[in-house]
């Protein structure tokens, strides 16, 4: 009887991560659902840490996280809460004192101390590191530009999670072993590769095992021409972070096709064929196909500046839409 191994891939995207949380709520309602691998970057790294290491119920803990991230305008006025939200979700981040005192020499605008405190209070890192679910989060070495993966098999700390969300110039570099790190989304905002690699390593010699990837596309930005500096920044972030997703998906489809081809070749090749000893052939044979790729997405549209809009009304709307889109996708069996 075949079994299915599942990897959950969690994007970055600032306030758009609320859509991802809505999808997570739906996914974890699946009967007997278990994620064998969780990869995350930026806001997705926070979610990954909570899902595998929350001191309380993971979904309730993420609900609390988004409640703290959200900003409400008092009194409520149309558009005012979104405008105020641009200045930070004060339950998690605040303006850095160094930026206020000496903005020309500061290396960041915001301070993440409240977020660090919340993570320390909400996540049991011993539990996270002992979890049978493999958790991988990513960051970029700010000194070298190298993209790095951090794995709970080697031990994750609050610093690794904060590092993955340290998007410049908004947030400061996070130091790990005296090395400075920035947000992993600067290189890859959808950590597919490490999820695929981790899935391949589980029961690699069992031909009955099926492998499933679940990812979300939160970048539902409506097409429009930027009219303000805020629009320009918003569009830049969208292109920089979410523009790579389409390329990642295309490369994934191509590589999965190569694995299909090599499987057929392997069946046709004589056992003594010299091709079996070719290094490229052996490398391809070591890979395992992803049998099902579920991409949760929808038709809902966001404004250009959505990634920085932590207003409570927008956050709740995204959570609800992510939940609906995930329920529809999962119930219909849609696959990318």
From TrEMBL:
Residue span of motif DGA/G: 183-185
Keywords: Hydrolase, Lipid degradation, Lipid metabolism
Alphabetical list of PROSITE patterns matching this protein: PNPLA (PS51635)
One Gene Ontology term of the molecular function aspect: hydrolase activity
Keyword Hydrolase attached: yes
UniProt domain PNPLA: residue ranges: 8-196
Placement of sequence motif GXGXXG: 12-17
Short motif GXSXG, span: 40-44
Protein name: Patatin-like phospholipase family protein
Keyword Hydrolase attributed: yes
Residue positions of the active site: 42 (nucleophile), 183 (proton acceptor)
One record GO biological process: lipid catabolic process
Pfam families listed in its UniProt record: Patatin
Top-level taxonomic group: Bacteria
